[in-house]
Amino acid sequence: MxxxxxxxxxxxxxxxxxxxxxxxxxxxxxxxxxxxxxxDAPDGAAAILEACLAxxxxxxxxxxxxxxxxxxxxxxxxxxxxxxxxxVPEGDRARRDRLAELxxxxxxxxxxxxxxxxxxxxxAGAADAxxxxxxRWASFFDRAVAxxxxxxxxxxxxxxxxxxxxxxxxxxxxxxxxxxxxxxxRVLQIGCGVGRIEARLSSKVREAVGIDVSAGMIxxxxxxxxxxxxxxxxxTGGRDLRAFGDGAFDxxxxxxTFPYLVAAGMPLVEAxxxxxxxxxxxxxxxxxxxxxxxxxxxxxxxxxxRLAAGHGFDVLALGETPFTVWDGVAFHLxxxx
Length: 337
Hints:
Layout: H1 45-53, H2 59-69, H3 75-84, H4 93-108, H5 111-123, H6 133-147, H7 149-153, H8 161-177, E1 182-190, H9 196-201, E2 205-212, H10 215-224, E3 231-235, E4 249-255, H11 258-264, H12 266-279, E5 280-289, H13 297-310, E6 313-320, E7 330-335
Parallel strand pairs: 1-2, 1-4, 2-3, 4-5
Antiparallel strand pairs: 5-7, 6-7
Helix pairs in contact: 1-2, 2-4, 3-4, 5-6, 6-10, 11-12
């Protein structure tokens, strides 16, 4: 799925469920610039800025997190003051270039990106409220996609089609590198959002299917991919894959969707892996891009390895970080015979 709260990844926005992690690399102990916790910066901005200037966090992801950390109603002005207050030594060209990129991106920020960040902040408390988590996700993403299709699936896009396209191209390149695409393969995405990946995969696979709990996301995906005859979308209940028969697919993948399942409880995670095992043919693949927002990649690796063993999957990649725009963590499993 998509927007995360101030945490590493920011594919789908911070919907009322997972409480995404803080800086995955952790606050740096050695400071090379005058980034500090001054009044001009939102709470937590120093660690985010330092991670970006040190090259551990991309500028789009950093700015997305800064948007979520900024006070409501004044986010852009607050970030302008925070970035203006950062000083970098003259000889540190790399950090100076990263700061310039942050400032340029802030100048290009789309209004929809700000709106989605505000929705994410306002809905953050709902994560602890009683009730149906899946229904809350659906409601949140319906509102988010109405504000910005790009930011609703990736807050780090800042509402920019250009940034989202760069990130999408990296995801597709990883799928190609891992050998999970092909002209005879049928693929299923759990949490398809607006269909950005299906649009790119249509020429690379026999059939691309996307499911989502949000009616608004499905409507946007169908509109965007209406000209692609081998692409289809289905709104589902978010609890299983019962709409599909045994052995229907060669690949099941999820881009920033599993964090919402993890936040709802491990039984929902188990159910989806059990269902993925059922709908995959023998030797089929599962790709999970971001398992959780806990901020503990080692724990994610342990959990994915345990779940894979328990559901008949071999582990081919366990927590790689292959992207430059997005900081998603990648897992690749393969169904046994």
